[in-house]
């Protein structure tokens, strides 16, 4: 028999994550932009995607997933992004912190710390890697904060303690956001005295929660591209506190052993 095309090898399937994730929107845009007729973007979750990737790599099978950086999967496996010459996944972006309207007045200390919260992909990688190695996210966050007193000190320097006031953060169970949310939660609790609930939800409810005022803040907004629709919908109902991390990327990711380099190649 002849050699199968990549499209045939992977059954014209891209393994996606939760349907509310912005990367799903970008992946659908890629399917359209590159004319990937009859391709299917499979919905699931971040955990299901990494499980499928792990299994494919163990079996040396081809697979295409929606992937993003920072993520521990790039340390664990040899992977590559497919190039995206038509820019379906957008250019550079950052992860932003988003607060509900009125947070500044109601919880000035939390607002100030959230506003200053800022770290790097390398920082995040430490927490993500520890969680991936089996540490509880709370413990991994605490260990990172304890080891990075200088950095954390700048987020909280001169801010008054809050005496047990309650705060609610929203997040989605993406590995990157499990790391960041647990870090800022631990800082607000251990350094500023808040009682913090971190509520795990889907992306839509996470944005809606902050916009509606039920959730005080979140540190999981990928902008300007990945969450553009959400920001557009809620821009008058939330306050964007700016980037907390620079140097992200999203796209279609494959094992390095696959003989393919560009999303354009999928149409062949
Ligand atoms: N992600 C990780 C999210 C943002 C964080 C890229 C999976 C998304 O696609 O919405």
Automatic annotation (TrEMBL):
One of its GO terms (biological process) is choline transport. This is Glycine/betaine ABC transporter. It comes from Paenibacillus hemerocallicola. It is found in: Cell membrane. InterPro entries: ABC_Gly_betaine_transp_sub-bd (IPR007210). It comes from the Bacteria. Keywords: Cell membrane, Membrane, Signal, Transport. Pfam families: OpuAC. One of its GO terms (cellular component) is ATP-binding cassette (ABC) transporter complex. GO terms for molecular function: amine transmembrane transporter activity; carnitine transmembrane transporter activity. Residues 5-146, 165-268 form the ABC-type glycine betaine transport system substrate-binding domain. Its main location: membrane.
